[in-house]
Amino acid sequence: MTLIAQITDMHIRPSGKKAYGVVDTEAMLRAAVASIAAQPRSPDMVVATGDLTDCGLVEEYELLRDILKPLAMPVYLLPGNHDRRENLRLVFGSEGYLPMNGEFLHFTIEDQPLRVIALDTVVPGKGHGEMDSPRLNWLKARLDEQPDRPTMIFMHHPPFPTGLQHMDSINCRNAPAMAEILRGLSNIERVACGHHHRSIQIRWAGTIGSVAPSVAHQVVLDLKPHDDSTFTMEPPGFHLHLWTPEAGLVTHGVAIGHYEGPFPFVLDADYPGHTAKSAAEAAN
Ligand SMILES: [Fe+2]
Ligand SMILES: [Fe+2]
């Protein structure tokens, strides 16, 4: 069993500063952390799929480190287009999983039954991402190491289209070459992404592609052709990925926030036909 909480697109700003003048990203990430910590079954790890900070400032990464502190499980960070590799390395490099040499911040996580491969798709200074030859070669080499082991790939920029035209124009480029590597493999449980600030699923390259919602602001759902993007404060969330040998990978969406309940499934006294064996059976 492996349980992974995927959080994404936190866009942390220096304390007291709202992102875009609207979003209190610090408070929203603190709420996400509280929600993860309160899960009845504690995740084995948290993976954050980029746009960790809004501007890539050292001060922002230091605040991020402080916000994540209550989490008892390992937290793995990969960069998005709003991040700066050098500052991410500076603040989190001592944790040991980020490579301290070379250009890219790729890594693997090997200590759970489900193997994790984290890809750095960042093109510095650009909104879009890329899987160029060096990155494709690194991915292929990692996959060749353990071709039979259930594996989940995390990356910031989705390498597949989503119908959100503006976001798709800044997704991961050279995706067909990545799809070529994955197609035909039977051990890739998922390609899990961020960047689009919405919950999305697609069949892609012989596996399933998914995007987790942001723990902060969401991109407005607009599926007609358009070339600008706006955001909304609809409820934030994260994904809980549960892997078991019996079922493979199952993903649950979690809404962050406090909601009424839990309530027991109690039938009304005048419920028509008490034929169900239990209240839960009747309610479901
Ligand atoms: Fe983002
Ligand atoms: Fe992004």
Report on the structure:
It is a single chain. It is built from seven helices and 15 strands. The chain is α/β, with parallel strands linked by helices and 284 residues long. The strands form four sheets. The chain has a six-stranded mixed beta sheet, covered by helices on one side. A five-stranded mixed beta sheet has the order 3-2-1-14-15, with no helix packed on it. Strands 6-8 form a two-stranded parallel sheet. Helix 1 packs parallel to helix 2 (58-68) and helix 2 crosses helix 3. Bound molecules: fe (ii) ion (FE2) (2 copies). Residues 9, 11, 51, 80, 195, 197 line the site of one fe (ii) ion. One fe (ii) ion is lined by residues 9, 11, 51, 80, 195, 197.
Q: What's a quick, concise take on this entry?
A:
The protein has about 280 residues and is an alpha/beta fold. The chain has helices spanning about 25-35, 60-70, 85-90, 135-145, 165-170, 175-180, 280-284; strands spanning about 1-5, 45-50, 75-80, 105-110, 115-120, 130, 150-155, 170-175, 190-195, 200-205, 205-210, 220, 230, 235-245, 250-255.
Number of helices: 7
Q: Average pLDDT across residues?
A: 95
Strand arrangement within the widest β-sheet reads 4-5-7-9-11-10
Percentage of residues in helical conformation: 10-25%
Radius of gyration (Å): 20 Å
Indicate the low-confidence ranges by residue numbers.
Answer: none
Question: What is the string of SSEs from the N terminus onward?
Answer: EHEHEHEEEHEHEHEEEEEEEH
